[in-house]
User: Fold this.
Amino acid sequence: MTPAPVSDPGRDELGLVLTGLTLAGMIVAAASAYGDISAQVTAFGLTLVYIFGGLPSAARALHSLWFDLVLDIDLLMVVAAVAAAAVGATFEGAVLLTLFSLSGTLENQAMGKARRAVEALMALRPETALLRRDGTVAEVPVASLAAGDVVVIRPGSRMPVDGTILSGEGAINESTVTGESVPVVKGPGSSVFEATVNLDGVLDLRVDRSASESTVARMIQLVTQAQAAKAPSERFSSWFGQRYTAAVLAGSVIAFGVFLWLGWPQQDALYRAATLLVAASPCAIVISVPAAILSALSAAARGGVLFKGGAALETLGAVRSFAFDKTGTLTTGQAEVTGIVSLTGSEDTFLALIAGIEAQSEHHIASAIRRLIDRRGLTPASVTGVTAIPSEGIVGTDDIGPLWAGNRRLAARMGAALDDPGLLRLADGDQTVIYMGRGRQVLGAVAVADQTRASSHAGILALRKSGIRQIAMMTGDRRPVALRIGSALGLRDDEIHADLLPEDKVVLIADLAAGGKVAYVGDGVNDAAALARADVGIAMGAAGSDVALQAADVALLSENMERLAAAHLLAKRTGRIIRQNLVFAMGAMLVLVAGSLFFNLPLPLAVVGHEGGTVLVVLNGLRLLFDPIRSDRA
Assistant:
């Protein structure tokens, strides 16, 4: 039996009512065996069962047959029940319809937990926001907000949009989007996502994206795509179910003819053919795959990993190699100050001065310096007349006189010597060094470098433990920079590839694919080609570019790379459960068919075996619902 592809509350409620009426009729009919109940009452109960348990299935079967030219399992069950009634086994036919209706309702209710992801995401989105404009605050619909608007976020409120905090500081619960269970403290300059919760503090938030382009909107789109897209095993089970259903109907008719040819009474022949019809029905085979796929997709989504369908999930489970972009994926993508040398005064005085001249620069090095002085609580010095010298640095003037800050080329232009031992030690590595001075005098220098994500090393280690033996890091950075990052992550030298162009990454992925399926993880526009070339493309969805997200098959909403290893394990476990379900379903069906053909299997026992097997494979698949991807388990 095939469940509805999308959860429909009205349809689910109707199914519960019909099943309840069917059960009531069955109880009335069954009670006649234990009490003094008239035949009319028994007949009334059986009539209820055939009406409320049989007519809906008949309607679905006729609809599929008339509009789609498909013979489905509903038709098999209705034919079997009618055949049972025709040979005087009305009660057995009623048992079949009751169990069929009950199992279908249980499956839809249970699998509804996996199919209600879109409704759950929609419920997270606030409908209104507090817009600050012209000194006043007014409540407006979220749909009316545009990029650049400023909204006020009160304690306990959900973020109405994706945005950047302009003022205020608070702990943000991001579990609804990234799956992180621990709140993250954020302040001015920090990005926040729609539907996350501001636990404390009052925040002024600048809108970065409209509601239709937000992170949650993209999540809803991905989940919808995932529900519509079918995995290869799902397509096979659907293809098999449709053709096998026709074969079962034809086989039952042929068996009925053979039994008559052998001299069986017509009533016995029809009874045995009806039993064979029930025993051979492929309900368990058809339902076993979507039960596991939908459950795994739901579990992954709760953990901040979104698959664009069951195909991506199945393929990830078969991946043998992983390739990673470096910047913004394995690293934070933000440069951090890693060393300071002050030649003329205290370190804090030097930092305040270089922060003053870098204050008007948008370069990532300037951002790193500003973040450092913010953490130290320092005030940048006043520097005016700042002018950029392309590819070299910047110059300006403070209250003492001219000032410059830049690389070696700018220092050479100024005639400054960089032979101080402290400066030489700072420059002896793969870091980017910025010098500052006045004319020929060097005042000091800072070293800046990208840093690995806190979870990257653990994530790579977890992938290796899960059976991944080939891991590659690909970057356009210089070889020394790549070696520093790679060695910190436990990668071998032959797994580190540097000085690459986007097309070089595609070639390397093709080489990896020669040894089995390969996954590529990236976040930037330049990763789009590599994401598309890999068997599974995985984008850093919350922080990554829209181009990367569109090219990828999987979106990792959290920056915790351990989630990737957990998603890989979930995909592998899903594959195992699908195989378990298919083996069990086909084995049970063969046993029931053999029993009905050679061992005079009673129709009620065939009904119980058929429906019981169907429910068991569904429950086995639904176990994946309780395997969420969490950082403390990843």
Summary: The CA atoms of residues 272 and 596 lie 7 Å apart. The chain has 23 helices and 22 strands. The first strand starts at residue 128 and ends at 133.
